[in-house]
Write a structure and sequence with these properties.
- The chain is mainly alpha-helical.
- It has a domain at 268-406 and 450-506: P-loop containing nucleotide triphosphate hydrolases (Rossmann fold, 3-Layer(aba) Sandwich).
- Helix content is 59%, strand content 5%.
- The protein has 26 helices and 5 strands.
- The chain has helices at residues 13-23, 27-40, 45-57, 61-74, 79-96, 100-115, 120-132, 136-149, 154-167, 170-183, 188-195, 204-213, 220-236, 240-257, 262-275, 278-283, 305-313, 326-338, 352-367, 388-394, 407-416, 429-449, 459-464, 466-477, 519-522, 524-528, and strands at 294-298, 318-322, 376-379, 399-404, 454-458.
- Helix 5 packs antiparallel against helix 6.
- The longest helix is centred in the last third of the chain and has 21 residues, at 429-449.
- The protein starts with 12 loop residues before the first helix and ends in a 9-residue tail after the last helix.
């Protein structure tokens, strides 16, 4: 049974009012009220915690740390402040490439757990933090303790299942998701996460439970998740018409909530094509950082990037990391500095030294995710195709690999995948086809202005002749071919993406022409149009 919660100490009215003000965005009023209160009740821990939150939100993490350290020094039994300090250090570690701060965050959690071994927040945050920094054996043990202490916590079982999936413990992941669903069979998001195992097996009673749960969903995300899960379950039962109906409903819900602006994407690609001319790159021929460590794997999602990463990471000189967002973080930092919303608005104003510094910033940010001494590492964020011009400008020696898949299979796979965030174009057939069209248009431009810069892998060719394609790939990387790369499925490296179980199997044709089963009900051919005839180059 769930352990009884410890009684909470009463919060002073002034602190409660400051918390309300802060929640409503009135941070200045909250700070004034707290300062007045602390002048009378010095070092009160609830007030100090709120002051630290304000400092962190206003961009002063060092001040927040000082406040929290003073609070736990004076009140060492104050778990909320220990946990807040752990979260602050974790955020700073990711933001500023101070990997040592992760150990500090873990030490703070350990202090909280020494105070109260049953503190659910600390017990839950500890394995989540260990998972992020790829200390997966320790995370596994921490999750085991968490579900042992809180066996009725559905979030604990869901997070544990995700770790097991990442580690490749497929059977245990299924059992953990099944436990979570037994605790709450109405949780639409949990059903989708189970379906996202890809190789998980559904049974008729699962469909009955999900169908019964549909009217009880409390928000759009959960309802859409349930439709996507039902689509996956009914697909296994080969009722493709019914599965297509659920995919339509799930995608319609998400598209209404998160519409994709096709014209804005087209305008952005127009601007990029205009900016990244042969002359632009000729003028910056000696700019950027000279590191050749990064290998970018990009393209559209569901095109085989996880398979390609697994092949690459089976090489002794290459480390697999994850879908990194360092390029996007750098862009956000530049947007704030230049008051713009696209790199193309100001990139021509950046000098050689600044471009080199941005390349170093990328290396610093990605170091947080590296765990080996291998020279090269993989950044497999598929959305980086849109940033190729920027990437080449700051890291001209990095390798860039575009993995491309037949647009019919690729667009269908995106439409059938419930991306939680960041892939709004996948929620409509016209939208995802338009995204493929803009991707193809920009990649062709890059091939013209930077010939030979991007190495292309066709997913179907890789499936048909893995050895030839792999040898060609390593010739581009200027690395010796290694036989282990053909036996990528034997690797025990953790994989976080939706294809994590599939890349632990020998290469196969299971994903090729899957769209054909749905064409009578989704009319994908009409959406893709002439893309189907001319997409390889």
């Amino acid at each position: 049974m769930r352990q009884p919660a410890k009684p909470q100490r009463p919060i002073a009215p002034e602190v409660a009012e400051a918390a309300r003000l802060l929640q409503n965005g009135a941070s200045e009023q909250a700070e004034i009220l707290l300062r007045r209160y602390l002048a009378v009740v010095r070092n009160e821990p609830d007030a100090m915690l709120l002051m630290a939150n304000i400092a962190a939100q206003c961009g002063f993490p060092e001040n927040a740390e000082r406040i929290l350290r003073r609070s736990v020094e004076l009140h060492p039994d104050r778990n909320a402040n220990w946990i807040a300090l752990a979260r602050l250090q974790h955020d700073r570690a990711k933001q500023d490439d101070q990997v040592e701060l992760v150990d500090d965050a873990l030490a703070c959690l350990d202090r909280a757990l020494a105070n109260d071994p049953l503190d659910e927040e600390a017990l839950g945050f500890r394995p989540a933090l260990l998972t992020q920094i790829w200390r997966l054996d320790e995370a596994h043990e921490s999750f085991r303790i968490l579900v042992e202490k809180y066996p009725e916590s559905q979030p604990a079982w869901i997070n544990y299942a995700h770790l097991l999936k990442t580690r490749g413990d497929f059977g245990e992941a299924v059992a953990a998701y099944r436990t979570a669903l037994a605790l709450d069979p109405d949780n639409g998001t949990a059903w989708w996460l189970f379906a996202d195992l890809k190789l998980a097996r559904f049974f008729p009673f699962d469909v009955e439970l999900m169908t019964a749960a549909l009217p009880r969903q409390r928000d759009v995300m959960a309802e859409a998740s349930l439709h996507f899960a039902l689509g996956a379950a009914i697909h296994q039962m080969q009722d493709y018409e019914a599965a297509a109906g659920h995919l339509r409903q799930g995608n319609a819900l998400r598209l209404k909530e998160r519409p994709h602006d096709v014209s804005a994407m087209r305008a952005g690609v127009d601007r990029a094509i205009e900016t990244y001319s042969p002359g632009f790159f000729a003028e910056r021929a000696v700019a950027g950082h000279d590191s050749n460590e990064p290998i970018f794997v990009l393209g559209l999602p569901r095109s085989g990037s996880t398979l390609l990463e697994q092949i690459l990471a089976s090489h002794s000189a290459i480390e697999g990391t994850a879908e990194l967002f360092a390029i996007q973080q750098i862009e956000v930092e530049l947007f704030r500095r230049h008051t713009a919303d696209t790199v193309e608005a100001f990139i021509d104003t950046l000098g050689a030294e600044e471009l080199a510094a941005l390349g170093q910033r990328y290396l610093d940010l990605t170091r947080f995710h590296r765990r080996s001494a291998r020279h090269h590492f993989i950044d497999k964020n598929p959305g980086n195709w849109r940033q190729i011009g920027f990437i080449h400008s700051i890291l001209p020696n990095a390798r860039i690999i575009d993995i491309r898949r037949n647009p019919l299979d690729c667009c269908f796979a995106n439409y059938a995948q419930h991306f939680m965030v960041g892939v709004n174009y996948s929620y409509g057939l016209a939208e995802v086809a338009s995204q493929y069209r803009e991707y193809l248009r920009f990649m062709r431009h890059i091939d013209r202005v930077l010939p030979g810069r991007v190495h292309r892998v066709i997913y179907e060719d890789l499936v048909e002749d893995i050895e030839s394609e792999t040898r060609r790939l390593f010739a581009y990387l200027e690395l010796p071919f290694e036989e282990s790369c053909l036996r990528f499925f034997e690797s025990d490296r953790p994989v976080r993406t939706p294809s994590s179980e599939q890349v632990r199997q020998p290469i196969n044709r299971a994903g090729i022409d899957k769209w054909r089963r749905y064409e009578p009900w989704l009319d994908l051919v009409a959406a893709v149009g002439d893309l189907a005839d001319d997409w390889r180059s």
